[in-house]
Amino acid sequence: MALLSSSRVQASARAPASSRRSVRVVCQAQKQDVAAQVGSVLAATTLAAAMTLGAPQPALADIAGLTKCSESKAYAKTEKKELKVLEKRLKQYEEGSAPSLAIKATMERTKNRFANYAKAGLLCGNDGLPHLISDPGLALRYGHAGEFFIPTFLFLYVAGYIGYVGRNYLNATKDIQKEIIIDVPLALRCAGQGAGWPLAAIEELKNGTLTEKPENITISPR
Predict the structure, then answer these.
(1) Which of 22, 31, 43, 124 could be disulfide-bonded to 72 (CB atoms 3.0-4.6 Å)?
(2) Residues 22, 113: Cα–Cα separation, whole Å
(3) What is the pTM of this model?
(4) Which domain of life is it from (predicted)?
(5) How far lies 140's CA from each of 56, 111, 146, in Å?
(6) Boundary of a domain, candidates 82, 99, 132
(7) Exposed, middle or buried by CB within 10 Å (0-12, 13-18, 19+), for 174?
(8) Beta partners for 131?
């Protein structure tokens, strides 16, 4: 058994360098694919959790003069005003015509939108429009956490995604011409691999490849 194991080690040591490099490239590609898949699942799970926070509870007290849209007279007045404008436009067209059907569909969507905002428990101001609570403390205190955390999470994820994909594209090209004329297939491949950027960034941070080392930075003289 010892002889067999030693012969295997020697055979692997004698393997061509090109084959070893190809194995490393395949393993790295597999890791990137796994990271992208896991990142997509993580993003979907986090978003689902944030959406559960988005179901607001009844407000316990008045917040900056806001009241629930379902109880706001200004909100009901705004709905009637929008429907009245659509009704005036509807009278300009014949019954059953294409513009008439389109306006009726718009009126139905308007009613559904106002009804959904009221059912969601959003808060309205004196202007008759829904307002979101952007203060984390008030959002958590009055059961409107989703109004703050969902937009924050989406902004951070999208901003990080754009930055990570752009960085990978520049590292893959290293050609200033491809910064002017985008290599579409390469850009799409980088975009597909960037879905799991949080995990990939953590892995690169552990490996020390996320940031440029000081000795590799060159400053051109002015």
Answers:
(1) 124
(2) 56
(3) 0.47
(4) Eukaryota
(5) 10, 30, 9
(6) 132
(7) exposed
(8) 123
